[in-house]
Amino acid sequence: MAGGSFEIRVEGFSGPLDVLCHLLESREIEASSIRVSDIIETYFRFLTQTERLSIYEAAEFLSLCSRILLGKIKALLPGENLENDGGEPDNEADEEALLDVLQRYRPYRAAAELLMTLQERRERHFIRVVEEDETAAYELKDLYSFCRQWWSLYASYAGSKGKSKIASGERQEGFLDPVPEEKQVEEKIRELQQRFYKEGEIPLEKLVPKRSDRSLLVVTILALLEMCRLGCVSLSQKEGFGTLWIRSLKHAVIDGPMY
Amino acid sequence: MLSLTARCIEALLFVASDPITEEELSSVLCVTVDDVKEALEELVEHYSDHHSLALIRVCSGWRMATEDRMAGIISSFRETSQKQRVRLSKASLETLAVVAFDQPVTRAEIEEIRGVRCDRVIETLLSHGLIKVAGRKPGTGTPLLYRTTDKFLEKFGLNSISDLPTLEEIREMSLEMEERDVDEESQT
Lengths: 259, 188
Prior knowledge:
The complex is a heterodimer. Among the domains of chain A are: 16-122, no CATH class; 181-248, Arc Repressor Mutant, subunit A (Orthogonal Bundle). Chain A has helices at residues 16-25, 36-49, 55-76, 78-81, 91-122, 143-161, 163-167, 181-199, 204-207, 214-229; strands spanning 201-203, 233-237, 244-248. In chain A, a hairpin with a 6-residue loop joins strand 2 and strand 3 (244-248). Chain A has a three-stranded antiparallel β-sheet. Chain A is elongated, with a radius of gyration of 35 Å. Helix content of chain A is 56%, strand content 5%. Chain B has two domains: 4-71, Orthogonal Bundle (Arc Repressor Mutant, subunit A), CATH 1.10.10.10; 90-187, Arc Repressor Mutant, subunit A (Orthogonal Bundle), CATH 1.10.10. Chain B is 54% helix and 13% strand. Chain B has helices at 4-15, 22-29, 33-48, 71-75, 80-83, 90-102, 107-114, 119-127, 150-155, 167-187, and strands at 53-58, 61-66, 105-106, 131-136, 144-148. In chain B, the strands form two sheets. Chain B has a three-stranded antiparallel β-sheet. In chain B, strands 1-2 form a two-stranded antiparallel ribbon. Chain B is globular. Classes of the chains: A mainly alpha, B alpha+beta. At the A-B interface, helix 1, helix 3, helix 5 and helix 6 of A face strand 1, strand 2, helix 5, helix 6 and helix 8 of B.
């Protein structure tokens, strides 16, 4: 190890601690002579050899290097050095800390191998393939799953409607406009006034089409109520549960903000 | 000849898409749990001879599956085998092991044990439904706590989480294996 002459051929490491365990188990290094730089070098070599180093793995590697470097810098400080009796300033403390970490990590590494064995054993039994249940479900208080499901539902909805619509920022049914509500009401009032000017009396069904979304319905009703308050329209219903007719009382155009 | 209860259970297991518990079978068939257990034993014995199907016990229930000796032939049959497999990396399995043995556990605790960041791996395990968020840990930052799911039990052929050995037992097992390896090496 001191000469750095060993070669590692493995199918994959789960992290630097896994590398360390591998080196110790294969007796390529001794636990008493662990050098952090060797672990970094080995793990770096593995990462570069995999040929599909992701940015996350690279970030993990850099994070590990930074932590070790920080430890080294701290050890070089005078206060830290006083405790050492010469020679390598921080090696012993590093080794001890690393061995502690390793001791705690190893059972989980073995447990992962056990899980792999269990999975392989289980996968030798096949069951009848049924369609996955697509019903959205999440446990109470599990907001994380709720959000995941909401977004996956939204993604599938967006997918069915076509991505271009979303990308173009076009208004989606069921999602409120980013325009303030009062602005929308004002615009609606102007639109309705123009319609009343042309048509005189209009049934409510015509103003609120059956397939309109909720926000449009809310804005229309608010606009009609406001017009009633301002005395621009009158509402009449000839029979109970019958058609609600809205009639224009005056043709004055409302200018400027009404709030 | 199978008993009527055993035949009914056989039919229910055939149509069920998830494991059925003994209590559920008892309720559906209006018989006692002991009767169900007896009928299941009868069925297990029945399938153990001259059949390519088997009854397996997973996730606190029973399900009908193919016998393990048929694994080879089924693996080569269309995409059946691929659909039922969850490919997990070594890092994912290790993270899953930490969750399984220390649950409920936070991401920081997993990262402390593994020595690397685990956010992406946790995301993968969540998307596979093998772990779930099980609340928040009281204290600074109230981090999310993770637990294994029923799907985890199902995918790893476990009846319950207590089927797993303890970490101490695993530690002893791995030490024994190491010692055995050393002995074998010294002999050669």
